[in-house]
Amino acid sequence: MAGKFIDIPAADSGAFKAYLAVPSAKRAPGIVLIQEVFGVNNHIRSVADRYAADGYVVLAPDIFWRSQPMFDVGYDPESITKGRAMKGQTDIAKAVADVAATVSTLRSRSDCTGKVASIGYCMGGWLSFLAAANAGVDAAVCYYGGGIDGSLAQAPRAICPILMHFGAKDEHIPQSAVEATRGAFKGRSDVEILVYKGAGHGFHCDERGSYNAESAKLAHERSLGFLKKTLV
To answer: Is 205 a catalytic residue?
Structure first.
């Protein structure tokens, strides 16, 4: 299943690209898939295609378009350095607005039922949490979202169901950050925070050395169950 890039109007000015992958069904719920610092690269496109095969209309917006449109790198040390630099140049408020614009575009499509979730990885996991608070998504999935613990003042605004996946051995997100996040949502039965034993940062990505096949499979199955329950 091969997708394509389409244009999405930005709320302030201009337009940005987003990778679109569609299922075989005529109408289906939508997913805004939010990239890591490596851009809408081969891995993110393959994840979008996978969710489309699972039965969702998927849009993966180019978050870094204001600095370098269509930024796309791999996972070698040089690419990691470049990706972190791109993140440092990014206005997060504008990035969240771009996610909101992507949500609106997805909802307006005739092949989308109107129900939309955000799913993000690493930086995208953080943005998925911020989307739950600011972009009007119906549900949010956050994979190892670095930065969530620093944005917990927005937790009361994130009123939709949320599923978060963290690795127990994440070298970038300490368990204290996970517990702080858990504490911010204490009493919320619609927020689930899961920790995967033996998994490190980026455990979902099969192009990274930290890939953990068992944890990735389990997290994906849980994400699909969560989406099926919340996007009805």
So the answer is: no
